[in-house]
Amino acid sequence: MSKTLFDKIWEKHIVDTLPDGTIQLYIDRLYCHEVTSPQAFAGLRERGLRPFRPAQVTCIPDHNIPTLHQDQPIQDPVSKKQVDTLEKNAKDFALDYYGLLHPRNGIIHVVGPEIGLTQPGMTIVCGDSHTSTHGAMGAVAFGIGTSEVEMTLATQCIMQRKPKTMRITVDGSLRPGVTAKDIALYIISRMTTGGATGYFVEYAGEAIRNTTMEDRLTICNLSIEMGARGGMIAPDQVTFDYLNGREFAPHGEAREKKLAEWRELYTDPDAAFDKEILFHAEDIEPMITYGTNPGMGMGIRENIPALKSIDPAGRTSYQKSLDYMGFAAGEPILGKPVDYVFLGSCTNGRIEDFRAFASLVKGRKKSPRITVWLVPGSWQVEREIRAEGLDTVLTAAGFELRQPGCSACLAMNDDKIPSGKYAVSTSNRNFEGRQGPGARTILAGPLVAAAAAVTGQITDPRELIVESF
User: Fold this and answer.
1) CA-CA distances (angstroms) from residue 346 to 186, 323, 360?
2) What are the distances in angstroms from CA 419 to CA 71, 230, 323, 440, 465?
3) Quick check: 240 and 259 in contact, CB under 8 A?
4) 126 Cβ contact list (under 8 Å, min separation 6)
5) Please, where are the H alpha helices in 64-179?
């Protein structure tokens, strides 16, 4: 019987099926950060249990950590308590822990793939919705709740209902100046934030096959923003080359054995999905959001949709969103002044994002009216930035690097956007208060962020790319 990639991995990890159809699913890797794990570890202590397979658990603080002065004690008492608690739990239960200033510290969804812990064919969970990122490696990866974190720690299994499957195909070739973030924001704008609810999505098509691994991590990261349970891309030579030589990836004979297994991870030609969606890469332009959910996105040269184009049932909430953002229906967003630019997060905090940003600001200067936070997704990314001389380019343009962490993606650390200020952000969510109380978040890719950083306003990066040649 023909099977999808999702079905192949899912079925291989079924331990048992209950009479009501609930599945006991084996989990290959559990990632834990400081926000959603404390109660899970407390539950283990209350029941006198220890992690069933500690070697398959990795703990990394990322949400609450500062991105300056990490060599000093964390000043915020709540953040300090959460980070200290994770460190204590990892120590008490003999789990791998990569704390502040550890060479493997960073955002957990950046670190996992880059050190080779995330691999094709795995089932991966974390108490974080953007666990879908790891699906880019050809894994079934999804976020779970704290009680499920406890269940995974105790049994290395989780109870799940099997989701439906969807394939989103993006055919054709991308235009110059269009990034993977633009692909994802375009898809979400067409699907809406609920269009993939109940589905696990596989991305396919020529445009997807031609992406880099870091592009794929960005695309799968944003799957959750259209309601999907997770997203994935079939592993191929891009995947295998990316994993080659990484610290925890298989080496030598073990690698050859794994490669044979990984090459079987694809959707059979005549396998059926519950839903199929087709998009054309040529239709995608640099994207930007104008509202308070990731689905409120458009091409950077478009006008904000007129109120009459919105379904009557949604007009009140639509107008509320525009009021919060200080925008008007029907107006362009191009040329709007902004106050902050944030490059980073588990969506766009990788080395290729910094290469793209640096390529556009090279030879230019940061706008004096803009505050810019450039936050590597990990210490490894920071080392790569310096090794490639990107830090020199950024410094010459008036920018400074911060230290790794989730930073301004969410208001859980010191990097908060002030109320009423506009931030062009390469992160993944733009709801009210996401980056700080009253903050106005405009989601975009690294090129759009770079263009705003040097012009002080919403700018089509293709204009600056043309000027560079």
Assistant:
1) 19, 29, 21
2) 29, 32, 14, 8, 32
3) yes
4) 30, 31, 32, 33, 36, 108, 109, 143, 144, 149
5) 77-92, 108-114, 146-155
- Token pair for 229: 């349970």
Look at the block and give the residue holding tokens 């199929």. 276
Average pLDDT value over all residues in the chain? 97
Q: How many residues does the chain have?
A: 469
Where would I find the beta strands (DSSP E) of 42-97? 57-59, 96-97
H-helix or E-strand containing 142? Answer: strand 140-143
pLDDT digits (tens, 9 = 90+) for 116-147: 999 999 999 999 999 999 999 999 999 999 99
And the tokens for 262? 């990984």
Each residue's pLDDT tens digit, 260-299:
999 999 999 999 999 999 999 999 999 999 999 999 999 9
Whether the CB-CB separation of 345 and 427 falls below 8 Å is answered with yes
- Distance between CA atoms of residues 461 and 468, nearest Å: 11
- Alpha carbon distance 313, 288 (integer Å): 24
Model confidence, pTM: 0.97
The CA distances from residue 114 to 108, 238, 285, 358, in Å, are 10, 14, 29, 21
Q: Which domains does the chain have, with CATH numbers?
A: 5-275 (3.30.499.10), 289-467 (3.30.499.10)
Which of the four pLDDT bands, split at 50, 70 and 90, describes residue 1? confident
Q: How confident is the model at residue 42 (pLDDT cuts 50, 70, 90)?
A: very high
Backbone dihedral angles phi then psi of residue 370, each to the nearest 5 degrees:
-110, 135
